[in-house]
Amino acid sequence: MDANPIPAWTIEGDLWEWGIPDAPAFDPLAAHTGTRVLGTRLQGNGRYLADDSTRIATPAIDTTRYTQVRLQYRRWLTIEDAFYDQATIEANGTPVWTNATDPGGTLNHLDREWRFHDVDVTAQAASGALTLAFTLASDASGEYGGWTLDDVCVVGIPRPGCGDGAVTEDELCDDGNVTDGDGCSATCVTEEAPPEPADGGCCGVATDPTGPVLLCMFGLLGLRRRRRPR
């Protein structure tokens, strides 16, 4: 994604960068979408620092009207076994994913291509607000490339009512959101539609007509609504 997320996200530590990846020893040669990515040490040798910790967190996302909320994104992660170094995803401060370990401490996580990653954050989103964070903590040796992120989205199924994507007898339209100015108003009344956006982007909207529908986008992170199963 080519929209800079860093001004809106909260960063702890000095490793996070937004730009064109240029550390081929560990990182991708190109973004998954567009030209720029969010990641740790995108230039030079690409290695994260020893004895260090860093964290980047999204702004709070309003999830009051959603169920079955999930984080979906593209990942290129290289990191030592979790016995030594830890890459973690947090939802409202609760770890919801971390890299693996084995008894010998030799299970290094080495992505060699862009990987789609889907993480259930329904329990954390039930509070009505969701903040997601990507963290990395390292020991004194064995540094790799760390996180590289692209196409970061949050998806969820709207709760029944205006904005759930199903037109009922008391609605003139229902486009799956409660946003004015998109052809169907926040109260499900028909209005003039804006120009159609270009296809593509995160979560495969252009290729799956029954899948997510764009609600909003800020920086690298977007909130999308999945249609309720019929």
| Distance N to C terminus | 32 Å
Tell me the count of domains: 2
Q: What class would the helix/strand composition place it in?
A: mainly beta
Percentage of residues in strands: 25-35%
Pick out the low-confidence regions. 204-220
Number of strands: 16
Radius of gyration: 19 Å
Give, in order, the helices and strands: EEEEEEEEEEEHEEEEE
Determine the oligomeric state from the structure: single chain
Question: Roughly how much helix do the residues carry, as a percent range?
Answer: under 10%
CATH architecture of the largest domain: Sandwich
Mean pLDDT: 85
Which topology of the largest domain does CATH recognise? Answer: Jelly Rolls
What form results from the Cα inertia axes?
elongated
* Count of helix runs: 1
The major β-sheet equals:
7 strands, mixed
